[in-house]
Amino acid sequence: MITVSELHKSFKLFAKPADRLIEAITGRVRHSTHTALENISFQVGRGEVLGVLGRNGAGKSTLLKLMTGVLLPDAGRIDIEGRVTGLLELGTGFNPELSGAQNITTNALMLGMSHQEIEARYQEIIDFSELGDYIHEPLRTYSSGMIMRLGFAIAIHADPACFLVDEALSVGDGYFQQKCMKRIQAFKEAGGAILFVSHDLNAVKVLCDRALVLEGGRIVHQGDPEQAVNHYNRIMARQAEEEEGRLQARQEGAYGTRQVEIRHADAWGRRSGSATLGSGDVLEVVLDLEAHQALDDVVIGILIRDRFGQDIFGTNTHHHCQRLRLAAGERRRVHLAIGADIAPGKYTLTLALHSGDHHLDDCYWWQDGALQFEVAGYLEGKFSGLCRLPCQIALEDSTACPSPSRQEAP
To answer: What range does the record give for the signal peptide (predicted)?
Structure first.
């Protein structure tokens, strides 16, 4: 259905608009070259969904624009069987001064539909979008979510053979996103080919048969969706480390007597290998300690907080009846493992060193938000709320469905 071979695309970048005119008149080079895509090759068969992952600027949107004909490649081939439609950047192909109803006609014509096809599916498009009377209002009065509803409704009813989905889908509300996902799944089961670009890592795992990761305009990984997600997470973890200068920030944000201090700290998912992990993974925490004087009772404490600053879980070595003695100048590495059976979201780890049950008497080291991690998606069955709790249900005279087996971390 879709075959991309050795695709290449670059852009000329000018420091100021006048340089473009000077280069055109004089022939002197006044631009730098940015390679957006280089040697991109992949295939998508019938009834197959290929996920595309990559951080901002990796080349995802450029790839979709090339595949829809918005841009032309510098080199390489794109072969697509049948009609191609897609939901690219929000509002692409719409006229804000026209009503939603008028935009159905103009946008559908741009997608290759005939007037007869538009007339036959006109009401279906309106019904699917659920815009009601707003369909007759100017598009400039629409919210981003309403524009996404209309764009997806038109694209999916254009009877495409291949469907391209960009991150624009993420602006919709949860209900309509689920509706779109069900329609995409039905399109796949009917034999359609889908290229799915998203930062929703759980959706990539659930929906996609394969996935590729773009970095710097090149494919750096292609294969199983879960492995691709893990590779993408490692890229994002490296970016966070580089941009935030986390080690320096941690040292500057700590307080206490510093009789013993944390010289370095890191956290990652046991299965993901990065600071982004699935719910049900094990969070590995490694602390490098250095004592500046001899101490007989060093307690290591951790506290997980959510993005609102609420305490989610905390414990320390005193609660686990473990006692740590350190000599002056001694360095020690400590490993902690925490079962991350918590809901998707962003979290921080507060780290503490003290004596006894709490830090109020002898606080050697305390650092709020020393580490960050994100829970994205579920490794096991979904749940509502903040965390997974043991639950047993017994129903008499009912047919039980097999429950997903719990996968223990190695």
So the answer is: none
